[in-house]
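Q: A reviewer asked whether we had any structural model of the full assembly, not just the individual parts. We don't, so I'm hoping you can provide one. Inputs are below.
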Amino acid sequence: MELIQLDPYRWEVPQDHERGMRVPARIYADDRLMAAIRNDQSLVQVVNGATLPGIVGASLAMPDMHFGYGLPIGGVVAMDPDTGVISPGGTGYDINCGVRLLRSNLVEQDVRPRLKTLVEELFRRIPTGVGSRGKLKLSPADERAVTLRGARWAVQQGYGSEADLACIEAGGCLEGADPDKVSSKAFERGRSQVGTLGSGNHFLEVQIVDEVFDEHIANVFGLFAGQIAVLIHTGSRGFGHQVCTDYLVVMERCMERYGIQLPDRQLACAPFRSPEGQDYLAAMRCAANFAFANRQCITAWARQVFEQVLGMGPRDLGLALVYDVAHNIVKIEEHLVNGTRRQLVVHRKGATRAFPPGHPEVPPQYRAVGQPTLIPGDMGRASYVLAGTQRAMEETFGSTCHGAGRALSRHAAKRLAKGHAIQRELEDRGIIVRYTGRATLMEEIPEAYKDVTDVVNVVHAAGISRKVARLRPIGVIKG
DNA sequence: ATGTCC
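A: Here is a predicted structure for the entire assembly that you could use as a starting point for your response.
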């Protein structure tokens, strides 16, 4: 297909009517990242996204893009609510997979002597792995409350504070969730999974702020070089997975009736205003709220572990929430399209909201500098804190990348990891790792990922977010 | 990502 380089960081596949494209596809990458993308199936997927009814602007892909279900991971598509569709594959299986960052009053020498104990206690207290079950015993009524109230439910149970809620995307609770649109099977799978980490690239890391790129914004976010921080990466576990599974079936059944034809059945979708579309939206919001509550509970336990292991009180620790972002979600947002304010159905799938300075949805304490945007990398290299920009608002519906992005398939990663003592190799570099699944650790070997620094440099240079700080892991727990 | 095939 035709792929035109617009500038050093932007590429376009022009609208091709024969392919059914309604808009162009646009990809953010430099030459090196594009070399990996060019012959990848994910390029076909971002082009396929351009065929979705009602799509506005362009089908977008971030530099961490890689192959996913239907749309690439790293994709952003925005639809007109009156003429467009909503697509479960445009959000992904792990609804509201996301990340939250806690800052602290600590520096490395405060934790290094107790680091092994700290990581072991975090691992003991926070359930990890596929099928992991938490210590919370929820009644069906409790679980419904989780889906309606999100992180607020967790705070009301004593897990964290009101101050935390102010530092979560959407306040940790999406309006319009309807548990009656969620299957009993999803509720059964989720019942024991609030407050669990899961598997794959999900993790809790103890990190050090390794380099500050923007002193002013870092200061506003409460970050400084040498500081200890905690990054928590998890989602809606089996609950969201089941919601996605259920609604893919619903959409596949109704697409023909709505006269929707697409190049890939994995893009299954329904008109946004249809009953099926609205039901998915309400169920997706339940799963998003489940994930916000999940991260909130884990946060409370992480704080307790720090207090016990370091023998410090909460005020001295200062483990305050910097921010919590969703990576896989559908949001109804207002955007300027060719000079006109419009409500749009924004699908972010492996992409992060990056709202600019002055945006009303950025918490007041950060509003002058833009929304904190959290980019987890692999467990051996780094993660980043970025800030949202006006250019993101103008070009990417206020979105940026979400992580390093896989360079190797899980199978290829396992093959590469054979013969590596991953845990020991990381420990030799001062990174303590505790994990549940050996196979997962192999799939997550740092070399399986693109270098998150390359990805972040592209979104920074393209102007769709601004580099604030780099963090490096010293303690990791994984599923 | 996921009770990694009910």
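A: Points you may want to mention in the reply: Chain A has one domain: 4-478. The radius of gyration of chain A is 21 Å.
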